[in-house]
Design a protein that fits this description.
The chain is α+β, with helices and mostly antiparallel strands. The protein folds into 2 domains: about 80 residues, no CATH class; about 350 residues, Beta Barrel (Porin). The chain has a 16-stranded antiparallel beta barrel. The two termini are about 35 Å apart.
Length: about 425
């Protein structure tokens, strides 16, 4: 019996015994007892069973009231936070520094790029993911994010490839970073819509399984074909049982203020076709970008440039393969290639390539070694050969804490000579 029920029963029993004790202290009137006995001669005799039955009845009533209170309490707790909503998240502590050519740190703006600060930085990112279902199959996703990364400092420079996947320039404020709604139609179709979404969340095929430290190496090369920004958008995806998948979606920058899919808004419309099996995947994407849409993460300054109101056709090829078993010398491999054609009168073509290797479970369970390299999106008239790379080792202290030391570097990263950068970071990720 629960403690609360025991207290109620004890109180009830004390209440029943109090009248008996009071009556025992009164003077016994024999005549009144005889009169009562004669008047009740046809009634049932009072014996010990009578009191036992009454006590049992009282206990049943009390139990019913306790159950009712517990039910009300449970209803209150369930109503305070929907039982169909789940929360998970992570915090990332990062300490790191870079060493760059003097031309980059002395105040020169090579190719229009900002300079790099060589000071050692300690920054953080905090993220919460809320998922709510209303039918059991749909999902409302909201991502809250905070961080103190500074965009023009050591670990936030897109032109020099030092921008981290964990970076978050939120000025220490928790903000709504992503928000969209997903709804299945039938068993194979999924529809997306939201005020804060990016194209790649709506693709039906995963383009790469390489998990990078630097943002430029996400999606098999975050350049013209897969480059995106958080904007209003919508999309559709189809996944067949045999691994075939196709998707089409759009996002429009400033769509919340000047309208979507208009000449006043930069728009990205991406259509992807892919085929995936447990050990491999291949996919192709065509991303039409309008009204001067540009991409920043894996590109040189000239490779990023687009006519102010110009359009571009961006084609991306992706593939990945992984061994049947981890813990061997054979890594999983992700590759990517982009080509982009703008409507500029001259020098309209850019290209990019990426290769990523991952070894898992090498020294201990759930550890990971990653190596990535590639050429940023480069315009055809550029005479330099920009090149970027990273290498890291990630291991878990326990199920919730992961530590990742990494080194990285670039040669002529922004498309100009004397634009070399090397760096190192140590990241600690806390998941909950």
């Amino acid at each position: 019996m629960k403690l609360f029920q025991q207290l109620l029963v004890a109180g009830a029993a004390a209440g029943m015994l109090a009248p008996l004790a009071s009556q025992a202290s009164d003077v016994i009137n024999i005549e009144d007892m005889n009169s009562y006995s004669r008047s009740q001669s046809s009634s049932k005799k009072i014996d010990s069973k009578t009191f036992i039955n009454e006590i049992n009845d009282d206990l049943a009533i009390l139990k019913g009231r306790v159950d009712g209170l517990e039910a009300q309490q449970n209803n209150f707790e369930a109503g305070s936070f929907s039982e169909t909503t789940t929360l998970d998240g992570k915090a990332v502590f990062t300490i790191g520094a870079v060493d760059a050519d003097k031309a980059i740190t002395s105040g020169s703006t090579l190719g229009g790029a900002a300079t790099i600060d060589e000071s050692t930085l300690f920054q953080y990112m905090y993220q919460m993911n809320l998922n709510t279902s209303f039918t059991g199959d749909d999902n409302l996703y909201v991502r809250l994010k905070s961080g103190n990364q500074v965009s023009d400092k050591t670990l936030g420079e897109k032109p020099f490839g030092t921008y981290l996947s964990s970076s978050a320039n939120k000025s220490d404020a928790i903000k709504v970073d992503k928000m969209w709604y997903t709804m299945p139609v039938g068993e194979k179709h999924t529809f997306f819509i939201g005020p804060k979404i990016e194209n790649y969340y709506m693709h039906a095929t995963t383009p790469s399984i390489y998990k990078p430290v630097l943002k430029q190496f996400t999606l098999g090369g975050n350049a013209s074909a897969y480059g995106a920004s958080t904007s209003p958008g919508a999309g559709w995806a189809y996944n067949a049982d045999n691994g075939f998948a196709v998707s089409s979606n759009f996002t429009s920058q400033t769509g919340q203020t000047t309208g979507m899919l208009t000449d006043e808004s930069k728009t990205s419309w991406a259509t992807q076709v892919g085929f995936t099996k447990p050990q491999y995947s291949v996919s192709a994407i065509v991303n039409m970008k309008y009204n001067g849409w540009t991409d920043s993460y894996f590109t040189t300054v000239n490779g990023k440039a687009r006519p102010v109101d110009g359009d571009s056709t961006n084609i991306g090829l992706r593939s990945w393969w992984r061994p049947a078993e981890t813990g061997t010398a054979t890594p999983s491999i992700s590759v990517g290639f982009d080509t982009s054609e703008t409507d500029a009168a001259t020098n309209s073509n850019t290209t990019m390539y990426f290769v990523g290797f991952t070894w898992q479970d090498i020294f201990q369970s759930d550890d990971r070694i990653g190596v990535a390299l590639g050429q940023p999106q480069k315009r055809e008239d550029e005479t330099t050969d920009p090149f970027s790379w990273e290498a890291y080792y990630s291991f878990k202290m326990n199920d919730s804490v992961e530590i990742t030391p990494a080194i990285f570097g670039s040669t002529d990263r922004n498309g100009s000579t004397n634009g070399d950068v090397t760096g190192a970071v140590l990241e600690t990720t806390f998941k909950f």
